[in-house]
Amino acid sequence: MSSTGPATPRYVITMATLIFTIAFLAIGVPAGYALGWPWYVTVPVCLVAGIIVGAIAYRAWKSSQ
After folding, report:
1. With 18 labelled, which of 1, 4, 49, 53 sits at a CA distance of 20 to 30 A?
2. Distance (Å) of CA 2 to CA 6, 8, 17, 29, 34
């Protein structure tokens, strides 16, 4: 993507999903361990949450265009 061109939908959905997934992992994994959840429960929950919130952010971006 050019820094002067408009953002493409693929770029927006990729970056939104990536950012929210990393954020959920950074917050959710320590919280899950504090609650006594094993990693094989905490990590998939964080991944799914990141994908869902990334998709919501993409829809919000798309509707504002």
Report:
1. 4
2. 8, 10, 20, 35, 43
